Amino acid sequence: MPVRIEAGAEPIPGYRLLNRIGGGGFGEVWRAEAPGGLLKAIKFVYGDLQIPEEADGNRAQQELKALSRVRKVRHPFILSLERFDIVDGQLIIVMELADRSLWDRFRECRSKGLPGIPRAELLGYLEEAAEALDLMNIQYDLQHLDIKPQNLFLVHNHVKIADFGLVKDLQGLAASVTGGVTPVYAAPETFDGWVSRYSDQYSLAIVYQELLTGVRPFRANTTQQLIHLHLTGKPDLSALPARDRPIIARALAKTPHERHPSCLELVQALRQAGGESRRVVLPSFVEHYGEGQEVEHESSAEGNQPVVAMAQAHEASARAPDRTHAVGVTTQAVERQSERLGTGVLVPTLVVGLGGWGLAVLRQLARCLVERFGSLRDLPHLRLLHLDTDPESQRGWGEEFLSHGGESLLLRLQRPARYLRPKDQLPDVAEWLDPQMLYRMPRSQLTGGMRALGRLAFVEHYRSVRYRLQQALETITQSEALSHSMARLKLEMRSDWPLVFVVAHLGGGTGSGMFLDLAYVTRQLLAERGYLPPRIIALLALTDPESPRASPLPLANTYAALRELEYFQAGGRRFIARYEAKGPIVQDVSPPFTRCVLVCLGEDRDGNNGERLERFSGSERVADWLYREVLTPLGRQADLLRALDDSLRDRVSDAVASPAPLLDVGQAERTARGSVLSLYGLASLEHPRRQILQAVATHLAEQLVRQWCEIPGQVATADLECQLATVMENLALFPEALQASLEQQAAEALGQEFAQAVTQTLSEQRQQHQDANVFVGEVLSRWHSWFGNPDELAGSWRTFLLTDRWQKFLEPVLRQAEENLLKWVWQFLEVPQARLAAAESAVRLTVAQLDAWLQALESQQAEAIAAQRAAENELETALREWERGSRAWMLERRSEHRKHTLLDRIGGALEQLALAQFRRFACEQLVRAYLSLRGRLSDQNKELNFCRRRLQQLADQIAQEYQRLPQLPAQQGYLYVQGENLQQAVEHVLAGLPPDLWQQLDEHFQQQLHREGTSLQRLCTASGDALRPLQRALINEIERWLEQHWPPCDVAELLLRQRGAEAAVRATVQRLFQLATPLVTTLTPSAGRSFTLAALPNSEAGHLLAELIHASLPENTVFLVGDPQELVIYREWVGVSFEDLPQLGPDARRAYEQVCFLEHFTPHSRLDIPAFQVCHKPVAP
Q1: Do residues 413 and 405 lie in contact, with contact meaning Cβ atoms separated by under 8 Å?
Q2: The domain 1-97 belongs to what CATH superfamily?
Q3: How far is CA 944 from the centre of its chain?
Q4: Fewer beta carbons under 10 A from the terminal one: N or C of the chain?
Q5: How many separate helices (H) and strands (E) can be counted in the chain?
């Protein structure tokens, strides 16, 4: 699931999120408390680095590349980066926490009635920003490309430049840009897809004008118009002081080279134009930071391999002091670890796959484990590591392997000159390799099937390999790892000693060339930890000499590798190797492997010599064997039988006639007798419950998601209306409540009720002014100071007593209302069987309610405007009468009475005008508030439609996954309860599901989201790659639910019921026995001891089937309890001799000699051992 991003969460251990600071298209920024109580800013970048091909993944990749560019830049005016981590594919950046941004400072100045930031203060900020930008430009060839007020932060009144997500490395004079720039501040060349050294200066000039005057030089209604103005339009500089205009005009030139030479010279010109002076130090004359300290970079060949880079960074920090004396496994005084044995099957396991075939096996094993257990992260006692010399292995199958939780390390060869003149820690390769053979290295710098080059790659990357092995062994041997896996799998422990498998194809160059060195280095690491004797098993694929596609080189490689294995495996032969010029010598006199399991394949090539990985055969069978060896009772019982001699094994098989776990591996003798070579074969008959459940779960997941996407139709609205009424009442959003609040605010502002304040004002002004014109002017001025007028309210710097107070009162009310309404709407997305339909209905009902209120308010507002106009007409009429009668009153005795009467009339009109204005402006405030809420809610329809499109995409992806599910072959090997194939079995299960299934599944999945600390809303509105883990999680949860509600099927019962007759059952069992014959056709059981294991369900049907098998198979068949859904026949030949192998027969010997006659060539991995020099310089006949 995605990283939890919410208050209180710790996405990085020790860093607790406090509150969200902001967000945008790049991601989110949160304030966080770091270890020690320090406050930091944490940026969560959208996109999954594990999925680089996704669009959102590219966003994170772009940010990661930008970090690699700017991490070497240090300057006091650049916001410092504390660290960055990649958690579950998400890039997390910890930064210095600033006080505020320049945009915040600008808004503060505007609130004080200023047009912008004072010029002297602003130039100080921009001078610091310009110094940092010029440093990046001149010394590091970098352009920021996102300079805007929001990215210029203030820390103790000093500028800090931040957000380097778009930074570009200039190559020569220009670099390309792929998008993401902010159009308001972007230079015109960026819209043409390139960047110049003067792009940031253009943005800085726009920032200067905007923050100084509040007016941008380019203003447009649409983005297209804005881009057109940047490309062709003339900037509007009229808001600037006249002295600044030519300077900014030059900085905004369309042609980059016509701008100022640097950002600092732009700021200096502005200072000089204002009569200011300040000493400026240009970066070109500043001493380079860290001069003389070289930064070590990866070579271009490996620069795009993050796995290698990380491994080398880790191992460099873990280097031990150099020692020149020889050390070996057998000479170190190490206290032996005590082994804890159990009655279960789990053992700490490391599987190392070498080369292309090793990857093929690891990929199949990882897929098998993920299908059965969900994720390799749930199996911390098991690690899968792939080593290869071919960078193409990191793609295709390699990407799938890594996505399942596997690990990979690239051992890339360098050019021959690197080895002919060794330096650094590399020893002289001429001690064990013919230097002329280096010139046979292909231009691709792959092994080309040459085993010696495979070993050379191991020597080159010895430290990285050793570090990876060391880390893996430390992980799997932790007691917590085994305990966690035991709890997760509900299986018991077999042993707490680690078991290491080395998987390689002996016919290639990579795995065949390094498998022995890898074994001895692993032995050393295990011995250093007290695991004596170390347990290392080789799983080796052999080229089939009878294959028509077998060519001389793979056969010769297989022959040479087997002879080398025979040489060291015999015991008493000292293995000596030096992997570092001044490092220790690794030496050992013990055999490299505890046991060697041989697999004969029709395909004969390693991935390094041109064969495609898809053409490897047998990898599925080998992965299946590995799974059973380390995670099922079969491995435990086979391990015991291997340690018994023939007479003991026969007595055990005679005593076993039922599938019961009779053998205790803790009491078994674990020392190998005779040859350690073994061959195996395995065949099974199973009820594919897992595949059926997977297909059913995938189908149900698609249907469930499509239900979430249903268009609102017959959604019950009665309950929603009641909920909405409650929300509105709690928020006091009804017009009557808000109008009452506005009246209260007016009374508090005026010190009395509004009507009383009007009466008092009229009385005071009437007493002070007997002239009607003066009286009216003073009163209207008072009314204006209370309300203003509609034309002045928008963007005015003046304050008005009542309208400003109303606005300040309504702002927090609106924020709270918006927050609660949106929370109420979006919470339906987390309600099972409600989801999008209910959320959209909630939006529709809320908008309808607001529309009704707006209609009523507009009616009241119209009435108030009509009353205001009537009062204005009455006032105008009374004033005209006053003007007409003013001269006549001087001649009449009763003029005073007429004047008072007319003034009373004027006063009444003014009072009605004030009351009408009060109602009008109050209605206008509420209309604005409701319109704002309505617009915000209407926007939610777009967000919900976006969620619908995302969920529809998710449903389509799940449908595609359903189509890609493997179709089981229509052959003997599978039994179905109903139907004859997987599709019919799936349809049968779907038909029998309960009617309330959807409600149960929806509730179950919602509970899982809650446990994960996330929500459907977050997953839908997050970056595009968030749907991928949602898809997997949804299918997995439904599959777990089905496992609990659909009981397993007994394959023994199925077999007996479907085959019916005893003869048919025996025939089926005998066919399985034949299919389990090891794939070496020229060997017979006389070549070694053999045994047979039959894994059966522990049921009444299983016991009946065991009796039939006991009568049908050889007498040395041992029974054990297995999975109730499968019957497994496992055959193994132990004690096989090297001389019995056809890969050491005449055909392989001829291919070996043919290759040996090539000049400066050997199929052996090393030439410093006399036994391997036989064919290096053949004697002429």
Answers
A1: no
A2: Phosphorylase Kinase; domain 1 (3.30.200.20)
A3: 24
A4: C
A5: 37, 25
* Higher per-residue pLDDT: 788 or 817: 817
Residues 6+ apart with CB under 8 A from 442: 448
Q: How many residues does the chain have?
A: 1181
Buried b (16+ CB within 10 A) or exposed e, 637-661: bbbbbbbbeeeebeebbeebeebee
pLDDT of res. 290: 30
Q: Which residues pair with 680 in a beta bridge?
A: 1132
SS3 944: helix
Residues 6+ apart with CB under 8 A from 604: 507, 543, 544, 547, 549, 550, 551, 554, 555
Residue 95 neighbours by CB distance under 10 Å:
21
Which tokens is 240 given?
Answer: 């600037």
Q: What average pLDDT does the segment 873-896 reach?
A: 71
Judge: domain 100-276, CATH 3.40.50.10070.
Answer: no
What confidence score (pLDDT) does residue 319 get? 34
pLDDT value of position 348: 97
C-alpha distances (whole Å) from 514 to each of 442, 511, 572 are 19, 6, 21
What values do phi and psi take at 95, rounded to 5?
Answer: -130, 165
Using a pLDDT cut of 90, give the percent of the chain over it.
24
25 and 36 in contact (C-beta within 8 Å)?
A: no
Q: Measuring CA to CA, which residue among 728, 736, 735, 758 is closest to residue 746?
A: 758
Residues in CB range of 878: below 8 A, 6 or more apart:
772, 902, 905, 906, 909
For the chain, the structural domain boundaries read 1-97, 100-276, 339-527+534-544+554-602, 695-710+966-1045, 717-941, 1051-1078+1089-1134
- Angstrom distances, CA of residue 750 to CA of 19, 747, 754, 810: 38, 5, 7, 18
Cβ atoms < 10 Å from Cβ of 1167: 17
pLDDT digits (tens, 9 = 90+) for 171-200: 433 344 444 567 899 999 888 777 888 999
**Structure tokens given for 403:** 């996505």
Q: Does residue 751 or residue 299 have the better pLDDT?
A: 751
Coil vs helix vs strand at 670: coil
Q: Please check whether residue 323 is in contact with residue 583, taking contact to mean a CB–CB distance below 8 angstroms.
A: yes
How far apart, in whole angstroms, are the C-alpha atoms of residue 868 and residue 913?
5
Q: What is the dihedral sign for C-alpha 1054, 1056, 1060, 1064?
A: positive
Q: Does this chain's domain 100-276 share its CATH topology with 339-527+534-544+554-602?
A: no
**Exposure of 827 by Cβ count < 10 A (0-12 exposed, 13-18 middle, 19+ buried)?**
middle
SS3 for 409? strand
3-state secondary structure of 787: helix
Compute the distance between CA of residue 550 and CA of residue 131 in angstroms, rounded to an integer.
67
Rounded CA separation 1163/455 (Å): 12
Q: Is the bond preceding residue 1124 a cis peptide, omega within 30 degrees?
A: no
Q: Is 842 exposed, middle or buried (0-12, 13-18, 19+ CB in 10 A)?
A: buried
- The token pair at 368 is 């098998």
Q: What value does the mean pLDDT take over residues 276-281?
A: 41
Tokens representing residue 758 in the block: 């009007």
Superfamily in which the 339-527+534-544+554-602 domain is placed by CATH: Tubulin/FtsZ, GTPase domain (3.40.50.1440)
- From residue 734, alpha-carbon distances to 167, 514, 813, 825, 918 in Å are 50, 78, 12, 18, 19
CB 521 within 8 A of CB 469: yes
User: What is the pLDDT averaged over residues 189-218?
Assistant: 90
What gap in Å lies between CA 943 and CA 936, rounded to an integer? 11
Residue 173: its pLDDT value, please? 35
pLDDT at 220: 83
Query: Please, are residues 758 and 911 in contact by the beta-carbon 8 Å criterion?
Result: yes
Question: Residue type at 133?
Answer: L
pTM beyond 0.85: the answer is no
Tell me the pLDDT tens digit for each residue of 488-536: 888 999 999 999 999 999 999 999 999 999 999 999 999 999 998 999 9
